[in-house]
Amino acid sequence: MTRPGEHHTGQTYLTTDRLVLRRFTADDADLLVGLDADPAVTRFITGGRPTPAEVVRERQLPGILAAYERWDGRFGVFAAHERDSGSFVGWFVLRPEPSGPTSEAELGYRLRRSAWGAGYATEGSAALLHKAFTELDVRLVWAETMALNLRSQRVLEKLGLSVTERLETPDDMLDVEGAEQGGLRYEVTADGWAARSLG
Q1: CB-based contacts of 16: which residues, under 8 Å, 6+ apart?
Q2: What is the CATH number of the domain that holds 24?
Q3: Which domain of life is it from (predicted)?
Q4: Is 112 among the domain residues?
């Protein structure tokens, strides 16, 4: 269903009180280019450098679309829109490693700066955790973030994930602010999530 102001119609993956998460389509490159053009959005990813449009069009978007095929639409990167306005707020990801078991999945998100502080990161991620553990037979969800990225850490902790290890900064991120502090891996198991949900 297309909502007012929403011109991109990909298959809906899930809905929350305020968000619709849907599959990206081949026509969505401009959404991704625009998102990564904001240096505040990519601060802890590329050091604030925008992702070149040709990289989005030739590598990133085709990879996102191929992943829907690989996992029969069960996992992937999903565009997030406000339910009321239809405006694009960013994306969420729930996916296994390319060659890993589907019982373990990565959780992540990237939101437009205009959507920060509204609770969307927590709302969308909580819905993905629920789907992972109740519908998709996932046993472990993990996420990684830079040690300096306190905003993301607060979201993960609110969702019930906890730190399992400290990470070295990847070579391609050594010029990112806080690279010397490395990163953190967070995890939550299906049992841990269920116990917390019941509590």
Answers
A1: 83, 123, 124, 126, 127
A2: 3.40.630.30
A3: Bacteria
A4: yes
Q: Which amino acid is at 1?
A: M
Residue 175 scores a pLDDT above 90: no
In a domain, 100, yes or no: yes
Q: Which helix (H) or strand (E) holds 20?
A: strand 19-23
Residue 179, C-beta contacts closer than 8 angstroms, at least 6 positions apart: 146, 169, 173
Amino acid, res. 116: W
Claim: this prediction has a pTM higher than 0.85 = yes
What count of Cα atoms within 13 Å lies in the side-chain half-sphere of residue 64? 23
Q: How many domains does the chain have?
A: 1
d(CA 109, CA 78): 9
Mapped onto helix, strand or coil, the DSSP state of residue 14 is strand
Report if residue 6 sits inside a domain.
Answer: no
Residue range 55-85, pLDDT digits in tens: 999 999 999 999 999 999 999 999 999 999 9
Evaluate whether 11 touches 22 at the Cβ level (below 8 Å).
Answer: yes
Query: For residue 9, what pLDDT band results from cuts at 50, 70 and 90?
Result: low
Can you give the residue range of the structural domain that contains 153?
Answer: 12-198
Domain annotation covers residue 52: yes
What does each C-alpha distance from 137 to 61, 74, 102 come to in angstroms? 26, 11, 8
